[in-house]
Design a protein that fits this description.
The chain starts with a helix and ends in a 17-residue tail after the last helix. The chain has four helices and no strands. The protein is elongated and about 85 Å long. Helix content is 60%, strand content 0%.
Length: 99
Amino acid sequence: MGQKFLLILGLFALAHAGYSAAQHRVYVRLTEQQFERLPADIIVQTLIAFFVCCIGTVQLFGKFKPILITAEWQNKTWDTIGNRPSFMTFNHRGKKLFH
């Protein structure tokens, strides 16, 4: 439950940062100033919201598998590793040549 709340909070903060950036652009146009960059508070809010979204996403969607293939092969014997049934095709058009 906490992971979903963290993700929703991050998405809401990210949407708020986008809305604040759009409002700042409108303000700059109305005051006829030159747009240089966004204020620091909007940039900081965007970065914090992005990191909260990342943390919520990683915690919500479970465990990652290790990158190394040897971690998956530790409990398997050579016979099961060498056996690749996905490459064995018994129903193919070559059997029509020999009938």
